[in-house]
């Protein structure tokens, strides 16, 4: 089918995730056709360096023969196996066993979901099962972070704290609350790490007290780098301090590693940076590197055993999906894990070091207020006045310009809400490819700055 026909049918029939329906219809889709390594080709034959790994997920890069072959073999052998009523299948069992060996603390069991949103939704359900099993049904409130993203299921979208997910959606739910983001660039306590940690721990204690005390609060959720909120890297030691505060308050510490998992920040799981031992952990994305849908919820021994031991024999835990632990996704997950274990993480660490060095150089650009990076996860925050840290006026339409100019430059990244460029290149990138990406970003920023309206705004 030719591109014009595809765009027209897309406009008429396909609803896109998190998009302006009117804007999408007006602009029309870019049709992606094929991929190899870190590169995509669209339906017009334009090659694009994918600096966002699809949607922070294609950590291995595109076209990995071993992953494709693993999926093909499993499709031939057994395309589907239910996990209901006593059945199981080898790839899911092997993947669960290998993942839990890598997972932090006592996260010795995993429930496989279809992606990140239903993994988060699963945690919210498991939390209720757990607190009810402990005989503490009044422990119901759940606390997340401003600028947090935890998917777009009904309950998860309320735990998320980004305006676009709340507008007209009747969330957050009454038991969902948010603390200030530990954002070193914009935290009221200033950029000092210790001050932010102190303020965050204080804010958690204060919020728990305002909700009626620890007896009323079930869990605290965080990403270890806030992804969709603008790639916010909390100060070192922040997550450890929050975990300690949760233990002190007897509330569950839940870590969402949907983005940060699978080498995105260096180690297989970002929990390793600070030796965290969460009570629950969610994963998705890099688990299958985007080659098939799959996510997962890890449960600690204490959580799992409390639910198991307090449910009468023969009574089912009513949480499940037809495609949980899907054998093709699991076989793909195993092949992807082989790649991580076989040197891909090391390549990501080396490429991430180069990325961080290049971003540090970008800090001098007149449009750049801050840069931050952890492994192959990075953000560039744009301002129109550095001293005042002034966010670009939405009327300037910077996000749209960034998208268009990047495409014309042959690079892909994510433009968040007009003021942050998000980067998450595949871990297979060479340093040359990181250079192409960063040189392209400089060219895009220069072009944005030459825009008369933007230039005016920068002059104040
Ligand atoms: N949690 C986090 C931290 C995420 O970044 C995302 C997706 N970007 C999700 C949950 C939801 O995952 P999915 O889009 O696979 O449902």
Automatic annotation (TrEMBL):
Cofactor annotation: pyridoxal 5'-phosphate
One Pfam family cited in the UniProt record for this chain: Aminotran_3
Membrane listed as a keyword: no
Keywords: Aminotransferase, Pyridoxal phosphate, Transferase
Superkingdom of origin: Bacteria
InterPro entries attached to this UniProt entry: Aminotrans_3, Aminotrans_3_PPA_site, PyrdxlP-dep_Trfase, PyrdxlP-dep_Trfase_major, PyrdxlP-dep_Trfase_small
Gene Ontology terms for molecular function: transaminase activity
Family: Belongs to the class-III pyridoxal-phosphate-dependent aminotransferase family.
Name this polypeptide is given: Aminotransferase class III-fold pyridoxal phosphate-dependent enzyme
